[in-house]
């Protein structure tokens, strides 16, 4: 919008491009010029707008979805990292408890605990459900 009037005044004045002499007064008084000034860019860009609309609506890429989530501030219902870490700690604590379980009494061979070790050896669950006699 600035180059054309400047060129139409300067070029004929120095004897270069004499065909531009008087063009500005004819161009800016014509309604078709202003109509085309609006219509041509809209027409040229409409193909790009239609293509972008189609791609985002009917075949969105993963980053399109991420952009919409950020734009509309949609909450994310996936588990958060801290909740996940808490669940992992609980599972590991339960696994540690299961691993560290043992007998309620000692299995050492000392004279004070002879009756406990004899009871352990006498009771064999692989043979039958009956308890050993004498106890």
UniProtKB/TrEMBL annotation:
Residues 105-114 have a biased composition (Polar residues). Residues 2-60 form the P-type ATPase C-terminal domain. Keywords: Membrane, Transmembrane, Transmembrane helix. Residues 102-135 are annotated as: Disordered. Residues 124-135 have a biased composition (Basic and acidic residues). Pfam families: PhoLip_ATPase_C. The keyword Transmembrane helix applies. The chain crosses the membrane at residues 31-50. This is P-type ATPase C-terminal domain-containing protein.
